[in-house]
Amino acid sequence: MHGEDGRAGHEGVPRRAAVSARGPFGTHAHAIVEQPPAAVAGTSPAATGWQLLPYSARSATALAAVAARLGQRLRRAGSGEELQDAAWTLQTGRTRYAHRGFVVAQDADEAAAALAEVKVRTKDRSGGAPAGSPPPVVFTFPGHGGQHAGMARGLYRLDPRFRADLDACVAHVRDASGIDLGVVFDPEGEEREEAARRSVADGRIAQLAVFVLEYALAKTFIRWGVRPAAVVGHSLGGYAAACVAGVFSFPDAVRMVLKRTELLLSLAPGAMAAVRLPEAELLPLLPEGVGIAVISGPDQVTVSGPREQVARFVEEHAAKGLETRLLKVPGAGHSSLVDAVLDEYEAFLADITFHRPAIRVVSDTTGTWADPEEIRTPAYWCRHMRHAVRYHDVLETLNAFQGCALVEVGPGTTLTSLARRHAELRWNHPILPALPHPTDETPDPKVLLSAVGALWAAGVDIAWPALHPGRAPRRTSLPGYPYERTAFPAPAA
């Protein structure tokens, strides 16, 4: 077929051979085999980076056996490239069964150690969805607050396509506004780290950076096969949600975020405070000018208004035993102070081109499904900036949405934490962050790939080739399926 050096045949044509077999009882077989393609030289960052290894079985017992056999095999693996080949083989070369598990690891030893800890579980799949019924995925976009220097840096360095998307967004913002967000996402060196910290402390830069990151991260999920059935945002996150849903273009969204931030920063000094009290009980206690800005839970409310009035409210009611505290946030969003700029914002929005959403949107202003005609009007976005964020009502709406899976697409874990505190939602829905909390040292890619693995375990189809940018991985030899034996006793005589 070929020489010792394994090179292709005459003038680059691959070598082929025919193999025939004829059985004595009329069975005939004929196969043509071809030499494999030459391995591509070099490796991508993914070849030595984090890998997602999915596995499945027909029963919980068999699933544990699959994990054990796979772990034993990986202990003998060598390079990161070999681990990537193992991940690719599991992703594309195995039948998908109802009982599913996954491991995210950076090297073979880490993967083997995690697989060795897998125990027999009685629950079939993440979220409890029946086999063959993948849950609808909801992208939840957080607002201002989770930003930090170097957010998504791990993914930026690992995935060249995410890097290209984010760089394109940063370039557009630079051209449109003169603001350079680049240092925020991948600062390197002490000076750039300090510059990044100063940038995220600037409200104008921080809000743009959060929006841009959320938009690029959503594109990554969609490229990986995770397509949202619905989207929702929290305050600023509503712009990323609507942009992904097609309500307005990315360039128009950048203009809207810039103008919104400019107007909010021009307001009179304000403050916000967290109060542990139900909305109905809190309303009669609020002084004039102070209103409810956010409702995060049954007794989890944020109030907002002029700085002196909010500070006085906190001081007086804390002395009476009410659990309340001032928040370290600039300004007073969703308060009466916003009234002064609503006319200017509405006039600005007249130049924005709005469309019917292509994806369902939950409104964080009403807490219910957004009307597809109303959301494409300037009046809706003025109310969105002024009225309270009713996120607890959002969670009530999502709890009734067909066992959906919630993915927080943005920096931090604020919305993930709120959803996991919901009395019912946390038991019936996968709730997943895409990135770690700013104080969590878990690498970005591990958190992100764990979210993808959990979605796959819940039944969502993943576009596996997109997880391997820059290199075509190859199939490798892994243990086969551990078929379970059943003993049938002999019939009684």
What do these coordinates show?
Helices cover 39% and strands 15% of the residues. It has 18 helices and 14 strands. The longest helix is centred in the middle third of the chain and has 21 residues, at 203-223. The termini are far apart. The model is unreliable at 1-6, 41-47 and 122-131 (pLDDT under 50).
Number of helices: 18
Total DSSP E strands? 14
Helix content: 25-40%
Can you summarize the main beta sheet?
Answer: 5 strands, parallel
**Mean pLDDT over the full residue set:** 89
For the largest beta sheet, what order do the strands appear in spatially?
11-6-5-13-14
Could you give the distance between the termini?
60 Å
- SS-based structural class? alpha/beta
Low-confidence stretches: 1-6, 41-47, 122-131
Shape descriptor reads elongated
Strand content: 5-15%
- Using only C-alpha atoms, the radius of gyration works out to 27 Å
